[in-house]
UniProtKB/TrEMBL annotation:
Name of the protein in question: Copine-8
Record GO biological process: cellular response to calcium ion
Keyword Calcium: yes
Every VWFA domain range: 323-524
Gene Ontology, cellular component aspect: plasma membrane
InterPro entries the record matches: C2_dom (IPR000008), C2_domain_sf (IPR035892), C2B_Copine (IPR037768), Copine (IPR045052), Copine_C (IPR010734), VWF_A (IPR002035), vWFA_dom_sf (IPR036465)
PANTHER family: COPINE (PTHR10857), COPINE-8 (PTHR10857:SF133)
Family, similarity comment: Belongs to the copine family.
Matching Gene3D superfamilies: C2 domain
Source species of the chain: Crotophaga sulcirostris (Groove-billed ani)
Name of a matching Pfam family: Copine
SUPFAM superfamilies: C2 domain (Calcium/lipid-binding domain, CaLB) (SSF49562), vWA-like (SSF53300)
Length: 578
């Protein structure tokens, strides 16, 4: 999300949702996925801008900048049109951006009063600016963020309203079924064992595989099972982009024989079952050699059904809140906090690993929590005054109200605790998991979802109880992120992360996979760039949250609440282009 695709992905006439012409090109970024999670359209309006013109009102333009992760450099993303003679512009030209829940995208909106045709911004009067994150816009009520414009000391610069709208094409899936007739016979003793491979074309003319059907054994007239694929994966939301389909004969040794291929597009397929969707399978080598070659069989589309998926953003827009709780490991194996070798060492010049993990994840999640109040817990320490061992104590010292204001408040409480408690043991996770589960169990209507971040240095002492807690929590609206810091072996944690084998306790399996474990050492940037380390960590640990969230809502049959009615600003007519 930190870079933008090439403008070649722009909208074709009557196409779905590529880019309008306003988008400028950001650099390719290693953190970006090839398929964006979704695209959002940003609309910008202002109220009570500064008046910089003597005889008339200002002629405003909005310029959007995005920030590179590593070096924090601001790059121009795009500009709106200029609107003449108004202090309350509602810009028509939108900004279309890739949106990933797991990445923090810093944005800057600059406003200028345009005085000439020059594209050079230094030739125009600066009207102020607004900083925010894309998550902050999306996470605001109704995905509508209103903030004061700042940047000119001593002056009220007015307010800006930015609204985010998810683009529909990114959420469609299609259910398709194909059959084939008279395919070439490739096997000596029997007929072929055919399967199809689908590829979407990329901007540079190369192809990326996006789906394989199952193999149908011993037939030249196969009927494959219907399959479902997102429009994003099939053609990246571009209805006219080439889709190449290859037909192979399966061989046990993996050297599958190529039967032939054909090309189509989403637009052609969307006509459904018709004469337009019967394709000749062509083998270019055979065609070149044999004069009488017609084809290597035909493939026919039997059915094409479009389904619109409910998205994570539909729930956020409908008011679902993400509640974030952090639990920090205060066991003695972390080392004495006053020693530089300790994982809890309070270095005045840089964050320790606990601080980095907490900030990396927390700064993204806080955009989706309207009150910004976060419960912060510790486990494995002896508490003053009597030295009792606790596995769920409030970092702010107030068990009745463990909430801290913002991520900075959590950091402060963490540093204060280090000075007052004694690191001890053992490393028990079940109490903090059960703590959050109690809250999650009280709101199962889809209005709230809970994310628990556990940061630990190591070997878990209550494995059986923790597994039981996770199996119980998998029925609740919650997810658990575990970040392992330090050099320990984290084999047990991998077992809790149910990616390979679904976790079970006493013969009961977890209803959903709700745990994501990562070792922090895998993310440390060799050049010492902590900003990059934190961005990589956040990307990996948060990437699974939207799908875990949706799996809970789907299993429970919970639909998103309707979004609040959209803000409709008053109309202003006069517009010119720059």
């Amino acid at each position: 999300m930190f870079g933008l695709e090439k403008p070649a992905g722009q909208q074709k006439p009557g196409g779905s949702c590529g880019f309008p012409s306003m988008a400028s090109v950001g650099d390719f970024n290693v953190l970006s996925s090839s398929i964006p999670a979704t695209k959002v359209e940003l609309s910008v309006s202002c109220r009570n801008l500064l008046d910089r013109d003597t005889f008339s009102k200002s002629d405003p333009i909005c310029v959007l900048y995005t920030q590179a992760i590593g070096n924090k450099e601001w790059r121009e993303f795009g500009r709106t049109e200029v609107i003449d003679n108004t202090l309350n512009p509602d810009f028509v030209r939108k900004f279309i951006m890739d949106y990933f829940f797991e990445e923090r995208e810093n944005l800057r909106f600059d406003f200028y009063d345009v005085d000439s045709k020059s594209p050079n911004l230094s030739k125009h009067d600066f009207l102020g600016q607004m900083f925010c994150t894309l998550g902050e816009i999306v996470g605001s009520q109704g995905s509508r963020l209103e903030k004061p414009i700042v940047g000119i000391p001593g002056k009220k610069c007015g307010t800006v309203i930015v609204t985010a709208e998810e683009l529909g094409c990114c959420r469609d899936s299609v259910l398709m079924q194909f059959c084939a007739n008279k395919l070439d016979k490739k096997d000596f003793f029997g007929k072929s064992d055919p399967f199809l491979v689908f590829h979407r074309s990329n901007e540079d003319g190369s192809f990326t595989i996006c789906h394989k059907t199952e193999v149908v054994k011993n037939t030249l007239n196969p009927v494959w099972q219907a399959f479902k694929i997102s429009v994003r994966a099939l053609c990246n939301g571009d209805y006219d982009r080439t889709i190449k389909v290859e037909v192979y004969d399966w061989d046990r040794d993996g050297s599958h024989d190529f039967i032939g291929e054909f090309t189509t597009s989403y637009r052609e397929l969307s006509r459904g079952q018709s004469q337009f969707n019967v394709y000749e399978v062509i083998n270019p080598k055979k065609k070149g050699k044999k004069k009488k070659y017609v084809n290597s069989g035909t493939v026919t589309l039997l059915s094409f059904l479009i389904e619109t998926e409910v998205s994570f953003l539909d729930y956020i827009k409908g008011g679902t809140q993400i509640n974030f709780t952090v639990a920090i490991d205060f066991t003695a194996s972390n080392g004495n906090p006053s020693q530089p070798t300790s994982l809890h060492y309070m270095n005045p010049y840089q964050l320790n690993a606990y601080g980095m993990a907490l900030k990396a994840v927390g700064e993204i999640i806080q955009d989706y929590d309207s009150d910004k109040m976060f419960p912060a817990l510790g486990f494995g320490a002896r508490l003053p005054p009597d030295g009792r061992v606790s596995h769920e104590f409030a970092l702010n010292g107030n068990p009745q109200n463990p909430y801290c204001h913002g991520i900075d408040g959590v950091m402060e409480a963490y540093y204060r605790s280090l000075k007052s408690v004694q690191l001890y043991g053992p490393t028990n996770f079940a109490p903090v998991i059960n703590h959050v589960a109690r809250y999650a169990a009280s709101v199962k209507d889809g209005s709230q979802y809970f994310v628990l971040l556990i940061i630990t240095d190591g070997v878990i002492s209550d494995m059986a109880q923790t597994k039981e807690s996770i199996v119980h929590a998998s029925k609740l609206p919650m997810s658990i992120i575990i970040v392992g810091v330090g050099p320990a072996e984290f084999d047990a944690m991998e077992e809790l992360d149910g990616d390979v084998v679904r976790i079970s306790s006493r013969g009961k399996f977890a209803e959903r996979d709700i745990v994501q474990f990562v070792p922090f050492r895998d993310y440390i940037d060799r050049s010492g760039n902590h900003v990059l380390s934190m961005a990589r960590l956040a990307k990996d640990v948060l990437a699974e949250i939207p799908e875990q969230f949706l799996s809970y809502m789907r299993v429970r049959g919970i639909k998103p609440s309707p979004a609040p009615p959209p803000y409709t600003p008053p109309i202003h007519v006069l517009q010119t282009q720059i």
